[in-house]
Design a protein that fits this description.
The structure holds two protein chains of two kinds. Chain A is mostly helical. Chain A is 58% helix and 10% strand. In chain A, the strands form five sheets. A two-stranded antiparallel ribbon of chain A has the order 1-2. In chain A, helix 4 runs antiparallel to helix 5 and helix 4 runs parallel beside helix 6. The longest helix of chain A has 37 residues. By secondary structure, chain B is mainly α. Chain B folds into two domains: 64 residues, Winged helix-like DNA-binding domain superfamily/Winged helix DNA-binding domain (Arc Repressor Mutant, subunit A), CATH 1.10.10.10; 42 residues, no CATH class. Chain B is built from five helices and three strands; from the N terminus they run βαααββαα. In chain B, strands 2-3 form a two-stranded antiparallel ribbon. The chains are: A mainly alpha, B mainly alpha. Chains A and B meet through strand 3 of A and strand 1 and helix 2 of B.
Chain lengths: 369, 127
């Protein structure tokens, strides 16, 4: 039975991964095809549709067999290495096919001189958003209180904690790795929660700060779409934060002996949590699209201008590198969510800081013991 | 107000930005007391250098279209703005050259008057 649920879980994860990559061409901004900016009236071009179709076919043909084989091979707590290889090969292959398709679109665009026929512009709105982030702040205060509550809990219930504090579990909730109990090491779980909170605050801040891009076809509407896009992702990140904080609170109360979770329940809770997080991300991405491109909007009229051709700043179509642009965060061109301007020193410092934070997190059990 | 910049134009970006803000003030798209986006915000959304925006804002400030508040940043000035003698001279020169160029291009006096009238009408319409 456990084996069955493991296989099922693997299939869910791979299904999500492959599914997202397959629909990715439809999640980008409307005038972006495989990270190449095109005028919107060429979107109906047969050759573009063909390139998208081919990308999907090629991707599915290779990744589905890999996913099936790996899903059946890996069971539960054995061989996580194989699993990681499986995930990375799916990601690697989708990048490979993405680059291939991008090259084809790029050549098509050059041959047809699509961008030479139109004036390229960038539009900004001078009115500032009065959008209050009161709810976001409130959510983080509540999150902080949850962490604090957990910290107080371990302090008060010090004696109830076992001599070994587990920090790594298998799917059945049995601790596979642990550190000896000390007055400091019992704070491991609140420490993990604090880390989650910090990452989520950082993510929401970067969403709020990310570059606003208006479409020349309907600047006013696209401003609204942009705001909805940012608001929904902020809400998604906050929901994920609360899910994770609750999960680790459960672990904490279980270790402390206040509650007793059976292995079956552990299994169920873990799978449920994973599915929920995937669902939140998947639904948000699918219903909203990058920059709100999948939100309902009025029929777009073709205008004389097109959004500025900024392909040159997207290295390999994935890495934004624009020395002149003081932006730190920008939405991904082909992908879900946000990335940084790699030409901005502040962005690099933040990235290094984030990596350092993750490093500290990975070493947390060592540091505390 | 929406500002639209053309990156391939012969007119430099700072000039386009300045021209459009002046136009926005003239037709009430930007109201006196309204604050303009910060230099950083505008540069970031446009994807241009901070200096470009600073140059526009500085010129707008020198010419009296905006004043800069320590807390609120650049704010649209009250109308009418007071032109100093240098500015009046510049405007006169510009206007003269503009009309002279039209004459050189073979436009009749009537056509030139119509042209100026139509520009004026369009601005009043947008108000």
């Amino acid at each position: 039975m456990n084996n069955m649920s493991n296989i099922l879980l693997n299939l869910v994860i791979f299904g999500f991964l492959i599914g997202i990559e397959v629909i990715m061409p439809k999640l980008t901004r409307k005038d972006i095809v495989f990270s190449i900016r095109v005028p919107i009236e060429v979107l109906d071009d047969k050759r573009i549709k063909e390139i998208i179709d081919n990308y999907r076919k090629k991707l599915l043909r290779v990744t589905v067999p890999i996913a099936l084989v790996i899903s059946l091979m890996v069971n539960g707590d054995t061989r996580p290495g194989v699993y990681v290889i499986g995930v990375f090969s799916v990601i690697g292959l989708s990048i490979f096919y993405f680059l291939e398709s991008r090259k084809e679109i790029k050549e098509l665009k050059e041959n047809e001189q699509w961008t030479f026929k139109k004036r390229q512009v960038t539009i900004v709105e001078t009115k500032k958003d009065e959008g209050s982030n009161f709810l976001t702040t409130l959510a983080f205060i509540v999150g902080g209180l949850i962490v604090l509550g957990n910290a107080i809990y371990v302090k008060i219930n010090y004696l109830q904690f076992p001599s070994e504090i587990p920090f790594h579990w298998n799917m059945q909730g049995a601790g596979t790795q642990s550190i000896p109990k000390t007055p400091l090491s019992i704070f491991l779980m609140p420490g993990i929660q604090l880390f989650i909170l910090l990452i989520m605050v950082f993510t929401c801040k970067s969403i709020a700060l990310s570059k606003v891009q208006l479409d020349v076809e309907d600047p006013k509407q696209s401003k609204i779409r942009n705001n909805i896009f940012k608001r929904r992702w902020t809400a998604a990140v906050i929901s994920m934060m609360f899910l994770l904080l609750s999960l680790f609170s459960l672990y904490n109360f279980d270790t402390g002996g206040t509650i007793n979770i059976s292995p079956e329940s552990y299994n169920f809770i873990n799978i449920l949590m994973l599915v929920l997080i995937f669902l939140i991300a998947g639904i948000t991405a699918f219903t909203t699209g990058q920059g709100g491109s999948r939100l309902k909007n009025k029929t777009i009229e073709v205008v004389e201008e097109m959004n500025r051709d900024d392909d040159q700043f997207w290295k390999f179509g994935m890495i934004y590198y624009n020395k002149n642009d003081p932006s730190i965060f920008i939405e991904k061109r082909f992908g879900i969510g946000f990335t940084i301007n790699f030409a901005n020193p502040i962005a690099i410092v933040l990235l290094v800081g984030l990596l350092a934070l993750i490093g500290i997190f990975a070493l947390l059990p060592k540091i505390l013991s | 107000m929406l500002i639209k910049l053309d990156f391939e134009s012969e007119i430099p970006i700072y000039q386009q930005l300045k021209d459009q803000i002046v136009m926005g003030i003239a037709v009430d798209d930007l109201e006196p007391g309204e604050s303009l986006p910060s230099v950083r915000e505008l540069a970031s959304d446009l994807g241009v250098n901070l200096h470009t925006i600073r140059k526009s804002y500085n010129q707008l400030k020198t010419e009296g279209f905006v004043h800069v508040n320590r807390r609120k940043g650049a704010i649209v000035a009250n109308l009418p703005i007071a032109l100093d003698d240098d500015q009046k001279q510049l405007l006169d020169n510009g206007l003269n050259t503009f009309i002279a160029t039209l004459i050189c291009s073979g436009k009749s006096h009537e056509e030139i008057r119509l042209k100026i009238d139509s520009i004026l009408d369009r601005m009043i319409e947008r108000k």
